[in-house]
Prior knowledge:
- The longest helix has 18 residues, at 402-419.
- Strands 1, 2, 3, 4, 5, 6, 7, 8, 9 and 10 form a 10-stranded antiparallel sheet that branches. An 8-stranded parallel barrel has the order 20-21-24-27-28-29-30-31, surrounded by 4 helices. Strands 12, 14, 15, 17, 18 and 19 form a 6-stranded mixed sheet that branches.
- α4 packs across α6 (402-419).
- Helix content is 19%, strand content 39%.
- β22 and β23 form a beta hairpin.
- The chain contains 9 helices and 31 strands.
- By secondary structure, it is an alpha/beta fold.
- This is Glycoside hydrolase family 5 domain-containing protein.
- It comes from Cohnella rhizosphaerae.
- InterPro entries: ConA-like_dom_sf (IPR013320), GH (IPR017853), Glycosyl_Hydrolase_39 (IPR051923).
- GO terms for molecular function: hydrolase activity, hydrolyzing O-glycosyl compounds.
Amino acid sequence: MLNLNGSGSARLNLPMYQNADNFTVKFKVKYERTSTALQNTWRFRYRAKDDNNNNALEWATHNSKYFIMRKTTLGGNYYIANYVKSLLDEWHDYELQVSGITHKLFIDGVETVSGEDSDSLAPLKGYFQWNVVGGINLMIDDFSIEPMLPPYVIDLQPSGNFSGIYAPGDTPGLDLALDAGAAAHTFQIDYAVRRADGDKAVVAMGTRTYDLAKYENDKEIIPFDPQLSAIGTYEVTADFEVDGVPQPGKSKKMRFAIAKEAAPIREIDLDNESKFGLNTHYALNWKDDIIDGARKLGARSHRSGIVWEDVDKNVKDGSGATVYDYSRTDPTLDKLFSYGFNQITVLSLEKNANYQAGIANTTASLKAMGDFVANTVAKYKDRIRQWEMPNEPEIFSKPYIPAEFVQLQKVAYLNMKKADPNAMLLAGDHTSSVLSVLPKELELGSYEFADAYSYHPYVYNAMPDGNLQKLTDGVKGLVNAYGGWKDYYLTEGGWPTANSGYPSVSEEVQRDYIVRAFLNYMVTDQVKAYEYYDYKNDGTDDRYYDIFWGDHG
């Protein structure tokens, strides 16, 4: 039995394990928490080149999810599949099958999660390594690795545009890639295209057949017949047979959209002339077509973030001045700027362990935080105007002490205005509990050190009409009592579409609610932006609402 306790790694060093590509790994695992840290993690890396370029099966306490992921130097982690489950303190049998572009996890003989990754960034082969971080006692037994013959591969994507979002004049279709693997095969694809709304009528369908010798591959663009031209959303389904046998596990369902007009790339909307914005959780490892799809849909603002602890490691230069490192921030923001998105940027300024533990509240830490804000705002002057306080402090800061956050707000505001008088501090950044949380902050002086207020109007099991307005009017009433007009930025808000669990709705209801919410805010004075949460789902486990917020409208 192998035991990793607390932190550390164990790499398989035998030559036969250094360059593995197709394999089945079996093992028993029991894991226990040995720390109260927010995130305790264990992972099994495979197809690994190094710690920053690999695939991994990972479980972490902060979200109780199993992830199969790709990690690359460009953009960090990319989740291929996930499964929301905690199996702390118990022995269980695990089986990880990796072949071609397919990754499957079995727990106690049951397939729990699977996903495919045909991205050009995907690792192809490498070594195996166990790793624990932050306080996990990991026990591993009955470990084995068995090679697999190269399997056949079927990879189907939207053609010409990975996001499946098209403008009039584009030619929607399917991009099919086949690889026979270690044996000859005959492949057949049957596709159908239906309207995603209304009568859901079939508007196109077709069949293609391919004969491939062993290790042969083929790639083809399949245009729809007849071609799609009408504005709207479409559901595309594709079923496969291999050697005459149906393969339901290879079936695909995709959503396409033909927009009336693709929004152009415009100058950054610093004045928020448009209220339409999005949360995306964008990372550089996305295909460009995905984030460009948000631009095509007309989103003008985008919620980003800069973390004090990431930029400022409490390092000084020869003159004693603080060294700020934006090397992990600039590439992402520059990419988003290139699409014309106005960044409404969360400043995660509440803590930095390089100065003190917990929320910054000492004289030295507050000065360092203020210096960070001044430096950051000056750096992005004329490119970012709206800066937001830390995200949902009443949830993510334990304990949440209003006086500490108002103190942070005051220091940030004064330093921000020194760096750029036109910069705006969006105070609050609260959840739908804003009506119960904001009063205490206002009592402590928040109003005088805020250009605007932000909050997240999540309204469940109810029509947006009336309920959203009631929440907005409630916030206005609280703020107006301290002096009057402030603008409001609604930097999250949405409806999940998971298959089970409160507060999910159907995709059709979500679509209608999104439209009604935007119409509501378009005619509401003082509301400057509504950034829908979320542009796309953050995982694959459709039992769990918290990762299924993606816009399906």
